[in-house]
Protein backbone atom coordinates (compact mmCIF):
# COMPACT_ATOMS: atom_id res chain seq x y z
CA UNK A 1 0.00 0.00 0.00
CA UNK A 2 1.47 3.35 -0.97
CA UNK A 3 1.42 6.44 1.24
CA UNK A 4 0.31 4.54 4.30
CA UNK A 5 -1.19 6.89 6.89
CA UNK A 6 -1.96 4.38 9.65
CA UNK A 7 0.56 1.59 10.21
CA UNK A 8 -0.07 -1.02 12.90
CA UNK A 9 2.33 -3.90 13.55
CA UNK A 10 1.84 -6.66 16.15
CA UNK A 11 -0.09 -4.28 18.41
CA UNK A 12 -0.93 -5.42 21.96
CA UNK A 13 -2.85 -3.89 24.84
CA UNK A 14 -3.19 -5.37 28.33
CA UNK A 15 -5.39 -4.03 31.14
CA UNK A 16 -4.89 -4.39 34.88
CA UNK A 17 -5.31 -7.95 36.02
CA UNK A 18 -3.62 -9.24 32.89
CA UNK A 19 -6.58 -9.09 30.49
CA UNK A 20 -5.17 -8.90 26.95
CA UNK A 21 -7.66 -6.87 24.93
CA UNK A 22 -5.54 -6.54 21.78
CA UNK A 23 -3.43 -9.57 20.91
CA UNK A 24 -0.87 -8.76 18.27
CA UNK A 25 -2.81 -7.25 15.37
CA UNK A 26 -1.33 -5.76 12.19
CA UNK A 27 -2.95 -3.67 9.47
CA UNK A 28 -2.45 -0.51 7.45
CA UNK A 29 -4.65 2.26 6.07
CA UNK A 30 -3.69 4.28 2.99
CA UNK A 31 -4.18 7.99 2.44
CA UNK A 32 -7.72 8.80 1.35
CA UNK A 33 -8.98 5.34 2.30
CA UNK A 34 -12.00 4.54 4.45
CA UNK A 35 -11.23 1.58 6.71
CA UNK A 36 -13.93 -0.01 8.88
CA UNK A 37 -13.07 -1.83 12.10
CA UNK A 38 -15.78 -4.29 13.09
CA UNK A 39 -16.13 -6.95 15.76
CA UNK A 40 -18.23 -8.60 18.40
CA UNK A 41 -18.74 -7.08 21.84
CA UNK A 42 -15.42 -7.12 23.64
CA UNK A 43 -13.53 -7.81 20.42
CA UNK A 44 -11.02 -5.03 21.05
CA UNK A 45 -12.17 -2.29 18.68
CA UNK A 46 -12.31 0.59 21.14
CA UNK A 47 -9.09 -0.60 22.78
CA UNK A 48 -7.41 -0.52 19.37
CA UNK A 49 -8.78 2.87 18.34
CA UNK A 50 -7.65 4.45 21.63
CA UNK A 51 -4.10 3.31 20.87
CA UNK A 52 -4.32 4.84 17.38
CA UNK A 53 -5.60 8.11 18.83
CA UNK A 54 -2.72 8.25 21.32
CA UNK A 55 -4.93 7.99 24.39
CA UNK A 56 -2.89 5.07 25.74
CA UNK A 57 0.42 3.35 25.07
CA UNK A 58 0.57 -0.22 23.79
CA UNK A 59 2.38 -2.85 25.83
CA UNK A 60 3.82 -4.30 22.66
CA UNK A 61 4.05 -3.74 18.95
CA UNK A 62 4.16 -0.53 16.98
CA UNK A 63 1.66 2.04 15.78
CA UNK A 64 2.29 5.03 13.54
CA UNK A 65 -0.20 7.68 12.45
CA UNK A 66 1.05 10.11 9.80
CA UNK A 67 4.52 8.71 10.43
CA UNK A 68 4.53 9.42 14.18
CA UNK A 69 3.90 7.53 17.39
CA UNK A 70 0.53 8.99 18.44
CA UNK A 71 1.31 8.56 22.16
CA UNK A 72 4.90 9.71 22.51
CA UNK A 73 4.68 12.25 19.68
CA UNK A 74 1.18 13.47 20.43
CA UNK A 75 1.98 17.11 19.66
CA UNK A 76 2.90 16.14 16.08
CA UNK A 77 -0.21 14.01 15.55
CA UNK A 78 -3.07 15.64 17.44
CA UNK A 79 -3.42 18.81 15.30
CA UNK A 80 -3.76 16.65 12.17
CA UNK A 81 -6.45 14.24 13.33
CA UNK A 82 -10.13 14.49 14.23
CA UNK A 83 -11.84 12.23 16.75
CA UNK A 84 -15.56 11.57 17.06
CA UNK A 85 -16.21 9.64 20.26
CA UNK A 86 -19.35 7.63 21.01
CA UNK A 87 -20.41 10.47 23.32
CA UNK A 88 -18.99 13.98 23.34
CA UNK A 89 -19.85 15.06 26.89
CA UNK A 90 -20.26 18.76 26.07
CA UNK A 91 -21.52 21.33 28.63
CA UNK A 92 -25.29 21.13 28.39
CA UNK A 93 -26.00 24.79 29.16
CA UNK A 94 -23.98 26.15 26.26
CA UNK A 95 -25.60 26.70 22.89
CA UNK A 96 -24.50 24.76 19.85
CA UNK A 97 -22.58 27.77 18.48
CA UNK A 98 -20.94 28.47 21.85
CA UNK A 99 -19.82 24.85 22.07
CA UNK A 100 -18.25 24.90 18.63
CA UNK A 101 -16.64 28.28 19.30
CA UNK A 102 -15.14 26.98 22.56
CA UNK A 103 -13.73 23.94 20.78
CA UNK A 104 -12.43 26.03 17.88
CA UNK A 105 -10.52 28.19 20.36
CA UNK A 106 -8.51 25.12 21.36
CA UNK A 107 -7.84 23.99 17.77
CA UNK A 108 -5.14 25.14 15.37
CA UNK A 109 -6.41 26.26 11.97
CA UNK A 110 -10.05 25.79 12.97
CA UNK A 111 -12.88 26.20 10.49
CA UNK A 112 -15.27 29.11 11.04
CA UNK A 113 -18.08 28.12 13.42
CA UNK A 114 -20.77 28.72 10.81
CA UNK A 115 -18.97 26.52 8.30
CA UNK A 116 -18.61 23.63 10.75
CA UNK A 117 -22.31 23.80 11.63
CA UNK A 118 -23.35 24.03 7.99
CA UNK A 119 -21.36 20.92 7.09
CA UNK A 120 -23.22 18.77 9.64
CA UNK A 121 -26.65 20.35 9.13
CA UNK A 122 -26.87 22.22 12.43
CA UNK A 123 -26.74 25.80 11.12
CA UNK A 124 -30.40 26.41 12.02
CA UNK A 125 -29.86 25.03 15.53
CA UNK A 126 -26.86 27.21 16.42
CA UNK A 127 -28.72 29.08 19.18
CA UNK A 128 -30.20 25.98 20.85
CA UNK A 129 -28.71 24.72 24.11
CA UNK A 130 -26.95 21.38 23.91
CA UNK A 131 -29.35 19.85 26.44
CA UNK A 132 -32.25 20.57 24.09
CA UNK A 133 -30.79 18.68 21.15
CA UNK A 134 -32.11 15.30 20.10
CA UNK A 135 -29.83 12.29 20.23
CA UNK A 136 -29.22 12.50 16.51
CA UNK A 137 -28.43 16.22 16.69
CA UNK A 138 -25.91 15.58 19.44
CA UNK A 139 -24.17 13.09 17.15
CA UNK A 140 -24.05 15.79 14.47
CA UNK A 141 -22.46 18.13 17.01
CA UNK A 142 -19.91 15.45 17.87
CA UNK A 143 -19.07 15.22 14.17
CA UNK A 144 -18.73 19.00 13.87
CA UNK A 145 -16.16 18.92 16.68
CA UNK A 146 -14.21 16.19 14.91
CA UNK A 147 -14.13 18.20 11.68
CA UNK A 148 -13.36 21.60 13.16
CA UNK A 149 -9.60 21.30 12.61
CA UNK A 150 -9.77 20.13 8.97
CA UNK A 151 -8.24 16.74 9.89
CA UNK A 152 -6.08 14.63 7.59
CA UNK A 153 -7.13 11.52 9.53
CA UNK A 154 -10.62 11.16 10.97
CA UNK A 155 -11.58 8.59 13.62
CA UNK A 156 -15.34 7.95 13.72
CA UNK A 157 -16.63 5.82 16.61
CA UNK A 158 -20.24 4.80 15.89
CA UNK A 159 -20.95 8.04 13.99
CA UNK A 160 -24.61 7.39 13.09
CA UNK A 161 -25.90 5.95 16.36
CA UNK A 162 -29.15 7.74 17.23
CA UNK A 163 -29.71 9.12 13.74
CA UNK A 164 -32.85 8.36 11.77
CA UNK A 165 -32.61 6.80 8.32
CA UNK A 166 -32.42 10.17 6.56
CA UNK A 167 -29.78 11.48 8.94
CA UNK A 168 -27.74 8.33 8.53
CA UNK A 169 -27.77 8.64 4.74
CA UNK A 170 -26.80 12.31 4.93
CA UNK A 171 -23.89 11.43 7.22
CA UNK A 172 -22.78 8.72 4.78
CA UNK A 173 -22.70 11.29 1.98
CA UNK A 174 -20.65 13.66 4.13
CA UNK A 175 -18.16 10.92 5.03
CA UNK A 176 -17.87 9.93 1.37
CA UNK A 177 -17.19 13.53 0.40
CA UNK A 178 -14.49 13.84 3.06
CA UNK A 179 -12.89 10.61 1.84
CA UNK A 180 -13.07 11.71 -1.79
CA UNK A 181 -11.32 14.96 -0.85
CA UNK A 182 -8.39 13.01 0.61
CA UNK A 183 -9.29 12.56 4.28
CA UNK A 184 -8.33 9.17 5.66
CA UNK A 185 -11.18 7.71 7.74
CA UNK A 186 -11.14 4.90 10.30
CA UNK A 187 -14.69 3.92 11.21
CA UNK A 188 -16.27 1.68 13.83
CA UNK A 189 -19.97 0.97 13.49
CA UNK A 190 -22.82 -1.23 14.70
CA UNK A 191 -24.43 -1.05 11.28
CA UNK A 192 -23.08 -3.66 8.89
CA UNK A 193 -24.83 -1.93 6.00
CA UNK A 194 -22.86 1.18 6.86
CA UNK A 195 -19.56 -0.65 6.59
CA UNK A 196 -20.66 -2.38 3.40
CA UNK A 197 -21.70 0.90 1.78
CA UNK A 198 -18.80 3.11 2.91
CA UNK A 199 -15.67 1.05 3.48
CA UNK A 200 -12.90 0.53 0.95
CA UNK A 201 -11.50 -2.16 3.22
CA UNK A 202 -12.33 -3.57 6.62
CA UNK A 203 -11.03 -5.76 9.40
CA UNK A 204 -13.14 -7.87 11.75
CA UNK A 205 -11.80 -8.37 15.26
CA UNK A 206 -12.59 -11.25 17.57
CA UNK A 207 -11.11 -11.64 21.04
CA UNK A 208 -8.37 -9.15 20.27
CA UNK A 209 -7.24 -10.70 16.99
CA UNK A 210 -8.02 -9.97 13.35
CA UNK A 211 -10.22 -12.77 12.04
CA UNK A 212 -10.69 -11.29 8.57
CA UNK A 213 -9.38 -8.36 6.59
CA UNK A 214 -9.65 -7.11 3.04
CA UNK A 215 -11.86 -5.37 0.54
CA UNK A 216 -15.54 -5.67 1.42
CA UNK A 217 -16.28 -7.53 -1.82
CA UNK A 218 -13.54 -10.07 -1.09
CA UNK A 219 -14.68 -10.63 2.49
CA UNK A 220 -18.24 -11.21 1.28
CA UNK A 221 -17.21 -13.36 -1.69
CA UNK A 222 -15.36 -15.78 0.59
CA UNK A 223 -18.65 -16.71 2.26
CA UNK A 224 -21.17 -19.12 0.70
CA UNK A 225 -24.57 -18.14 -0.64
CA UNK A 226 -27.65 -20.06 0.51
CA UNK A 227 -30.66 -21.67 -1.13
CA UNK A 228 -33.31 -22.88 1.31
CA UNK A 229 -36.69 -24.48 0.69
CA UNK A 230 -39.20 -27.04 1.94
CA UNK A 231 -39.59 -30.37 0.19
CA UNK A 232 -43.12 -31.77 -0.15
CA UNK A 233 -44.21 -34.78 1.89
CA UNK A 234 -42.54 -37.97 0.79
CA UNK A 235 -39.41 -36.27 -0.61
CA UNK A 236 -35.98 -36.23 1.03
CA UNK A 237 -32.57 -34.69 0.36
CA UNK A 238 -31.53 -37.93 -1.33
CA UNK A 239 -34.18 -37.36 -4.00
CA UNK A 240 -32.40 -34.19 -5.18
CA UNK A 241 -29.84 -34.35 -7.98
CA UNK A 242 -26.30 -35.11 -6.71
CA UNK A 243 -25.45 -32.03 -4.68
CA UNK A 244 -21.90 -31.84 -6.00
CA UNK A 245 -23.28 -31.54 -9.53
CA UNK A 246 -25.32 -28.54 -8.34
CA UNK A 247 -22.18 -26.84 -7.01
CA UNK A 248 -23.28 -27.34 -3.40
CA UNK A 249 -20.49 -27.17 -0.82
CA UNK A 250 -22.60 -28.25 2.17
CA UNK A 251 -26.14 -28.58 3.39
CA UNK A 252 -28.37 -28.85 6.45
CA UNK A 253 -31.84 -30.29 6.77
CA UNK A 254 -34.41 -30.11 9.55
CA UNK A 255 -37.62 -31.96 8.87
CA UNK A 256 -38.66 -30.97 5.36
CA UNK A 257 -36.60 -27.76 5.43
CA UNK A 258 -33.35 -27.94 3.44
CA UNK A 259 -30.58 -25.33 3.20
CA UNK A 260 -27.87 -25.63 0.56
CA UNK A 261 -24.57 -23.72 0.80
CA UNK A 262 -22.88 -22.79 -2.45
CA UNK A 263 -20.23 -20.55 -3.98
CA UNK A 264 -21.94 -20.90 -7.37
CA UNK A 265 -25.37 -19.50 -6.63
CA UNK A 266 -26.67 -19.32 -10.21
CA UNK A 267 -25.58 -22.88 -10.98
CA UNK A 268 -27.17 -24.24 -7.80
CA UNK A 269 -30.43 -22.34 -8.11
CA UNK A 270 -30.81 -23.14 -11.82
CA UNK A 271 -30.14 -26.85 -11.34
CA UNK A 272 -32.51 -27.07 -8.42
CA UNK A 273 -35.36 -25.30 -10.21
CA UNK A 274 -34.93 -27.39 -13.37
CA UNK A 275 -35.10 -30.55 -11.26
CA UNK A 276 -38.25 -29.29 -9.50
CA UNK A 277 -39.87 -28.47 -12.83
CA UNK A 278 -39.09 -31.86 -14.37
CA UNK A 279 -40.13 -33.72 -11.24
CA UNK A 280 -43.30 -31.60 -10.93
CA UNK A 281 -42.26 -30.74 -7.38
CA UNK A 282 -43.18 -27.48 -5.66
CA UNK A 283 -40.44 -26.11 -3.41
CA UNK A 284 -42.15 -24.35 -0.51
CA UNK A 285 -40.84 -21.10 1.04
CA UNK A 286 -38.03 -20.91 -1.50
CA UNK A 287 -35.35 -18.43 -0.42
CA UNK A 288 -32.30 -17.70 -2.60
CA UNK A 289 -29.84 -15.50 -0.74
CA UNK A 290 -26.49 -14.20 -1.97
CA UNK A 291 -23.59 -13.85 0.42
CA UNK A 292 -23.51 -10.58 2.38
CA UNK A 293 -21.35 -8.90 4.99
CA UNK A 294 -23.98 -9.73 7.59
CA UNK A 295 -23.87 -13.41 6.61
CA UNK A 296 -20.08 -13.32 6.84
CA UNK A 297 -20.24 -11.58 10.21
CA UNK A 298 -22.74 -14.02 11.69
CA UNK A 299 -20.93 -17.04 10.31
CA UNK A 300 -17.71 -16.02 12.04
CA UNK A 301 -19.56 -15.41 15.28
CA UNK A 302 -21.09 -18.89 15.13
CA UNK A 303 -17.76 -20.44 14.17
CA UNK A 304 -15.99 -18.67 17.02
CA UNK A 305 -18.62 -19.72 19.52
CA UNK A 306 -18.23 -23.29 18.36
CA UNK A 307 -14.47 -23.12 18.74
CA UNK A 308 -13.84 -24.12 15.15
CA UNK A 309 -10.54 -22.31 14.90
CA UNK A 310 -9.56 -24.13 11.76
CA UNK A 311 -12.32 -22.42 9.78
CA UNK A 312 -11.67 -18.86 10.87
CA UNK A 313 -7.91 -18.78 10.89
CA UNK A 314 -5.86 -16.03 12.44
CA UNK A 315 -3.87 -13.37 10.68
CA UNK A 316 -0.22 -13.19 11.41
CA UNK A 317 2.17 -10.89 9.64
CA UNK A 318 0.91 -8.13 7.37
CA UNK A 319 -0.32 -9.40 4.07
CA UNK A 320 -1.40 -12.75 5.53
CA UNK A 321 -4.92 -13.84 4.87
CA UNK A 322 -7.76 -14.99 7.06
CA UNK A 323 -11.13 -16.37 6.15
CA UNK A 324 -13.61 -13.49 6.44
CA UNK A 325 -15.45 -13.51 9.69
CA UNK A 326 -18.89 -12.13 10.37
CA UNK A 327 -20.59 -10.86 13.48
CA UNK A 328 -23.50 -8.77 14.65
CA UNK A 329 -22.12 -6.39 17.15
CA UNK A 330 -19.78 -3.73 17.65
CA UNK A 331 -18.52 -2.21 20.84
CA UNK A 332 -15.26 -3.24 22.30
Automatic annotation (TrEMBL):
GO cellular component terms listed in the entry, alphabetical order: plasma membrane
Subcellular location field: Cell membrane
Domain (ABC transporter): residue spans on this chain: 6-232
Main location: membrane
Signal peptide location: none
Claim: Nucleotide-binding is one of the keywords in the record: yes
Keywords, alphabetical: Antibiotic resistance, ATP-binding, Nucleotide-binding, Transport
Keyword Metal-binding: no
Domain of life per record: Bacteria
Protein name as catalogued: ABC transporter ATP-binding protein
Native source species: Streptomyces alboniger
